[in-house]
Design goal:
The complex is a heterodimer of chains A (about 350) and B (about 375). By secondary structure, chain A is of the alpha+beta class. Chain A has eleven helices and 13 strands. In chain A, the strands form three sheets. Chain A has a seven-stranded mixed beta sheet. Chain A has a four-stranded mixed beta sheet with strand order 1-6-4-5. In chain A, strands 2-3 form a two-stranded antiparallel ribbon. Classes of the chains: A alpha+beta (about 350), B alpha/beta (about 375).
Chain lengths: ~350, ~375
Amino acid sequence: MSDTARSPDRTCPLPLPHHDRIVLGHGSGGRLTADLVDRLFKPRLENPVLREGDDAAVVPAGALAESGEVALSTDAHIVRPLFFPGGDIGRLSICGTVNDLAMVGARPAWIAAAFIIEEGFATEDLDRIVRSAAAAAREAGVTVIAGDTKVAERGAVDGLFITTTGVGLVPTGRRSARANRVEPGDAVLVSGPLGDHGIAVLAARGDLALQTTIESDTAPLNGLVEALYASGAAVHALRDPTRGGAAAALNELAGASGVCVVIEEERVPVRREVAAACEILGFDPLHVANEGRLLAFVPEADVDRTLAAFHAQPYGAAACRIGRVEATPAGRVLLETGIGGTRIVDMPSGELLPRIC
Amino acid sequence: MKHLTEYRDGALVRRVLDDITRESTRPAVLMEVCGGQTHSFVRSGLDRMLPETITLVHGPGCPVCVTPLEVVDRALALARRPEVIFTSFGDMLRVPGTDGDLFSVRAAGGDVRVVYSPLDAVTIAAENPDREVVFFAIGFETTAPANAMSVAEAKRQGLPNYSVLVSHACVPGAMRAILGDSHNRVQAFLAAGHVCAVMGYHEYPPIAREFEVPIVVTGFEPVDLAHGVLTAVRQLESGRAEVENAYGRVVSEVGNVEAQVLINEVFELGDRVWRGIGMIPASGLHLRDAYRDFDACARFDVGAVHSEESARCIAGEILQGRRKPTDCAAFGTECTPENPLGATMVSSEGACAAYYRYERGPVCAGRVP
């Protein structure tokens, strides 16, 4: 067990692989691949299972047997630019899968990650990304126990793609949170301001001449979910509003549960800078992506304890209630506007496109 | 944002709505000219808060919607050429031509790029001297100055590889066409505030007089829109037909003279085809002879373009205020933003898209039975 106590930061005195750029040979399965895995990936993601070096990660079945349910999720990560204010593709790839597992009420346990790297990619950038992924995994308390590396010819990949697959365990006795368990009478809560990630990434692309101080919210939310369950609240459904924003997430849940979700526009938290960027571009903040926020559906009676639990957590300090659930019209998301009108909140259609004028 | 939130003040909107309800005694059909106003009405729910006496119909002021299908087809043909970098405002990429849209051209290997300003397209031309850069110069008087500036700038820099596919529309001609039509129902206009910010509103008094309709220059926020409606209702109730400015914080009578000079330097007024409506005299901008070299249609032979509109789309009637999106049998069934029959379902300013996004079906929540 002493191995697990070794900090990854102290286990990487090894210099980086000799090449300062990734070459096709790094994906050939030969010596260069072994060099990259041994010198870069393993020291950063250090854990006993990964170190075994088998074709498949082997973990004791005990943890599985002791759980009520097992959750499995997979996610492919493509983001441009790879580094953006508040995060990078490494952190994003771990948080994305951790959060998907946490959103059903599972405790994320293990992650497998595949890196598809473009020929010519800077080894130093890869190192930064793997370190960032490792830091996110440590923060979330998950271990990366399996991995794969492929190198694609220049132009076949936009820098780096990462896919992550995770396994999470729902503790015995815990009722998992599910898309179809939203009930009329539930309250809708959000863990923080919406739209930070989407606007931060858009601004970081640089082709908007949009200068903002907005940082992506990319963060692991399993701590928030554990705090929520610990509060004793009856958790009906959770969802992290990533691509498609809160609008897509709310529509999916309204559809799956056959209920009507009513959001009060004035309660929806949006940072001033994000709201301003959305005004300029013609975006609806409800359509903009988040990577470190969750929507929670709990019975009205549990709102106070839910908010208290969220507010005690670093990623839930600005949590608030934004709406309620009613019976009809089933499958709809409605917005009560700031001036007292009502409209539907639709799924975003295709890519968000800035308007003409 | 401060200057926006003030004009989204719910209490103030309700006060103006109360005035409208009290003062509006007879049925009135109002047309908001600009698609941005349509979306703001529907998005805030203000359209459904107006008294029943008032019917809003939605005008032709959506640049994407009125761009003729032939022009979209020409854009697709240009974008497919291997030597061309086709640049466009993002909104145009989803607009269906006869055979696909710019997104599908991009997916098939065409170099189609979204720009946020026409000057970005000029920069791309300067950086890619071995490629031909075409910019899709569409829009109303609002985008005309920037589009004109891009052509003037390309000329100044002597860029031989920059050209524009022009489809510019002007509002006053369209207002005349709508009012002059035998099926017209519009009794008052809420004129497009942003167009007037550029052009002023000195072109409108002759229209108001000739057709005896009130024309109220109106902004885009709920308070602005409600104020515009109230101003129009007051004119109708008292039998007046004048031009009034209800968007004084942005619009002056003469408008932005510098921008007008730039437009006139590069473009000249001429007849124009509006998608769904047809030819309207003196309602479009075309490149002047001195800038003809920058005309993409003259530079490239795109061959004969065969365009075919969907027979089931009633966008033309919607754009003239004769029918509403929900009057269309295809609305929300055959025609959706994912599979649009016409441009009004695509554009972020299109009336059909506004109805689809914000008020399709029941919008009244019910408690647990």
